[in-house]
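Entry 14: structure prediction run for Eclosion hormone. Input pasted below.
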Amino acid sequence: MLPTFILTVLMFSAVCIEANPIGVCIRNCAQCKKMFGPYFEGQLCADACVKFKGKMIPDCEDIASIAPFLSKFDHY
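Run finished. Output tokens:
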């Protein structure tokens, strides 16, 4: 009985962590940073996640959702 209870609590905790919109938003920022490298302002994206409490979730495949975080990369 006890191991089942512990497993249930752990599964519920994982679901709660995954459902945190700020966490999802920041993870998406990190994914976009990996995809776009120096062209993506990851810190600015993460700051927006916190500021807007995860209400805007960046989607790396949706240009409208990441446009504010894209920058021109100068390589001099």
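Notes: The longest helix spans residues 2-18. Will compare against the previous run tomorrow.
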